[in-house]
Specification:
The protein has about 280 residues and is an alpha+beta fold. It has two domains: about 160 residues, 2-Layer Sandwich (Ribosomal Protein S5, domain 2); about 120 residues, 2-Layer Sandwich (Alpha-Beta Plaits), CATH 3.30.70.890. The protein contains ten helices and eleven strands. Strands 1, 2, 3, 4, 5, 6 and 8 form a seven-stranded mixed beta sheet that branches. It has a four-stranded antiparallel beta sheet with strand order 9-10-7-11. Helix 1 links the parallel strand 3 and strand 4. Helix 1 runs parallel beside helix 2. It starts with a strand and ends with a strand. It binds cytidine-5'-monophosphate (C5P). Cytidine-5'-monophosphate binds next to strand 2 and helix 5.
Length: about 280
């Protein structure tokens, strides 16, 4: 049997950084939702007890540094499985972009191996707990949809999906590693409360209130380090888009738009301006 899983990208609708913890991580409050941009993950049984990974993207390592590999290794260890697995990653989500591509691939491997090896008793909550050992965003990716993430990002509470809308994605030709961004953040004396506003807006299905409350504390670091990302944000704001923000630790900037015609206008305008522009929908 071969198993295929879709691994959707995420965007942050908010990201409040609360405090630095003794373990080096930061406590955060954030809302994340999925978009219809996805990697495809294929799982093939191997005759020998081994894990192999192949990705069709030069920036993705084909070894134990790959989060998909780590997910398979953890799954085999946890459930004492001595069978082998070959993982193929068809990458569509840009790498080191703030869209959770690596985390989503890892989550897809956990879901897929559960199906392949028919461990029906294993719950999504268990997969999410395992995911937390791989990366802070992996538990969210196990469930997908729309959620409030707290702690270092691993505690998940489900939220209503955002009102349907278009997402204009634009990214400069650079990769950003999350671990280099958090340590450079100057924490506010009073933590920001973007998340509270976004949660209320989702609960009341209010698209414009959601856009008004969106905010990301990590922008202050990434947009200063990479002025080209700042310029993309400013350019996108010129198209009268209600919600423009950076996703995760960046550098991808996205804009939420209700109407296709306006989204398409922004997409066309940005294409002449930056390396990678896409027009997708919120899935949530
Ligand atoms: O959990 P993950 O491995 O994705 O995190 C990568 C790095 O980002 C961590 O090593 C840490 O430096 C930083 N981070 C953080 N606080 C979080 C999540 C990540 O400081 N909540």
């Amino acid at each position: 049997m071969v198993v295929f899983e879709k691994a959707p990208a995420k965007i942050n609708l908010s990201l409040d950084v609360l405090n630095k913890r003794a373990d080096g991580y930061h406590d955060v409050n954030m809302v994340m939702t999925t978009i219809d941009l996805a990697d495809r993950v294929s799982l093939y049984p191997l005759h020998r007890d081994d894990i192999t990974v192949v990705a069709d993207n030069q920036y993705v390592p084909n070894d134990e540094r790959n989060l998909a590999y780590k997910a398979a290794a953890l799954f085999k260890r946890t459930f004492h499985i001595t069978k082998g697995i070959h993982i193929e990653l068809e990458k569509h989500i840009p790498v080191s972009a703030g869209l959770g591509g690596g985390s989503s691939d890892a989550a897809a491997v956990l879901r897929g191996l559960k199906r392949l090896w028919q461990l029906d008793h294993v719950s999504n909550a268990t997969l999410a707990e395992m995911g937390a050992q791989i990366g802070s965003d992996v538990p969210f990716c196990v469930y997908g949809k729309t959620a409030l993430a707290t702690g270092r990002g691993e505690h998940i509470a489900h939220l209503p999906a955002p009102p349907s809308c278009w997402v204009v994605l634009a990214r400069p030709d650079i990769g950003v590693s999350t671990r280099t961004i958090f340590p450079k953040l100057t924490l506010n004396d009073v933590p920001s409360t973007y998340t509270e506003g976004v949660v209320t807006a989702l609960e009341t299905h209010d698209f414009y209130a959601m856009c008004d409350h969106m905010g990301n504390d990590l922008e202050s670091v990434t947009l200063t380090l990479y002025p080209e990302a700042q310029r993309i944000k400013e350019k996108m704001q010129q198209y009268d888009i209600p919600g423009v923000m950076m996703s995760g630790s960046g550098p991808t900037i996205f804009g939420l738009v209700e109407h296709y015609s306006k989204a398409k206008r922004a997409y066309n305008g940005l294409r002449g301006f930056c390396h990678d522009v896409r027009l997708v929908r919120v899935m949530g």
